[in-house]
Amino acid sequence: MGGSEDERIERSLREEDLYDVTTWEKRTVLDRASVAIYRGLTSNWQRVFVVLAVLLFVAQLAATGFILFVQPALGVLTFLSVIPAFVLAALIWYGDDVQREPLAPLAVTFLMGVLFAGFASLLNTALQPVFQLIPVVGTILFFYLEVGPVEETSKWLASRLYAYRTEYLSAAIDGAVFGAFAGLGFATIENFTYITNALFTAGKLPMSRLVSVVVGTAAQRSFVGPGHVIYASFAGYYLGLAKGNPENRGPIIVKGLLIAALIHATYDTLVTYLPLTGVTFIAFVIVYDGIFLAILYRKISRYRHKFQQATEQPEQSPS
How far is CA 39 from the centre of its chain? Predict the structure, then answer.
């Protein structure tokens, strides 16, 4: 009796249409759209990300163009503010005498650094109020859980989505160079944003005071830009290292991003909570960035030394 009852239930279930109850298949337009979106996000997520970034960049470019048309002096101040970051990126590039990268892929990486900066800005703006609801440690958590990871990942993507696919990024030292130019692009658009915001915020001040505020902001940002270059170079270094070690690629990449994010977040935290003004701020930035620049330089020097040893070692003839 029990067996026949089970058979009847099983037969009934086979005959019954259980679509969207216990089974599922492509039937409706919405089903097919869901499958297409899933496949697009899983197999073409990079293209989707790039398309969204391009749309954001076009909007950003239009706004930037309008602002520069109205206030061309902002472009000059932005250019001046990124000179230290540019010099640092150029020195890292020049230091790669193993196989110096051509300027074209570096320019593309720079532009992608500008492009992806928009995502970081949107996320920072959207999530900062959430972290501010957390008493005492909200700002610190914002730096370590949001600003550092998001901004460094954005700069990392500028190298990962283009340079990583080319022959020019084939080793750790190459990754450091491309990371530097991604950081330079990020710093450029960020400096422009800060300088523009300073102008609009102080717009009702007397002209002499207005100029002082805007120029002061540009001067301050000139000391911030090199940090973006250094942090992104760390992530880029490990990206290059990962390319040469595909069996451990994921953990190596994560390590580089963690290092860059932690250095970045620690900088933001110290600058926020330490009583730094004027000369003390400049001294702090020079010391802080100098320490990590020295660590990065040591890594690059060790790579160059090992490369030279490998190339100068005579080939052993078979016995």
Answer: 25
Residue 137, classed as helix, strand or coil, is: coil
The residue with tokens 């503010």 is 81
Among 98, 244, 85, 61, which residue's Cα sits nearest to residue 179? 85
**Cβ 233 vs Cβ 172: under 8 Å:** no
Tokens of 133: 């609801």
Nearest in space to 148 (alpha carbons), one of 227, 48, 251: 227
Query: What's the rounded Cα separation, in Å, for the pair 74 and 203?
Result: 14
pLDDT per residue as tens digits for the range 85-97:
989 999 888 877 6
Burial 157-170 (b: 16+ CB within 10 A, else e): bbbbbbbbeeebbe
Residue 179 near residue 239, CB atoms below 8 Å: yes
Q: What tokens does 248 get? A: 């451990």
Rounded Cα distance, 65 and 71, in Å: 10
* C-alpha to C-alpha distance for 309 and 315, rounded to whole angstroms: 12
**Is residue 136 a contact partner of residue 102, using CB atoms and an 8 Å limit?**
no
The one-character DSSP state at 125 is: H
pLDDT digits (tens, 9 = 90+) for 79-127: 788 888 989 999 888 877 667 888 899 999 998 998 888 888 888 999 9
The DSSP line for 10-44 is HHHHHHS--BTTTB--S-SHHHHHHHHHHHHHHHS
In whole angstroms, how far apart are CA 135 and each of 128, 130, 139?
A: 13, 11, 9
CA distances from 233 to 143, 158, 249 (A): 19, 12, 17
pLDDT band with cut points at 50, 70 and 90 for residue 303: confident
Query: No. of H helices and E strands in the chain?
Result: 12, 0
